[in-house]
Each structure stands twice: as structure tokens, then as C-alpha cells.
Design a protein that fits this description.
mainly alpha; rod-shaped
Length: 41
């Protein structure tokens, strides 16, 4: 039963959307910091 619950949890679309959103924000922040770094030099 615990395995099934865990599997259902990982297939949760909301959690997937939030994770992908965090990943997108992380990429945008990286690009922004990289540009600042280039601009500083």
C-alpha cells in the first residue's frame, strides 16, 4: 500500500508543475547571474 501511495504521489501533476516551474526559475536566475558576471568584467 505504501508503494502505491508513493507512486501516486510522484505522478501528481501539481507537484510536477511546481518542480518544472522551480527548474525554470533556477535556469532564469542562472542566466541572469551569468550576465551580471560577464557585465562586471
Amino acid at each position: 500500500i505504501a508503494k502505491q501511495t508513493h507512486q501516486r504521489g510522484s505522478n501528481n501533476p501539481l507537484r510536477t508543475a511546481i518542480t518544472s516551474q522551480m527548474f525554470t526559475d533556477y535556469q532564469l536566475n542562472n542566466k541572469f547571474i551569468y550576465q551580471l558576471f560577464i557585465f562586471a568584467y
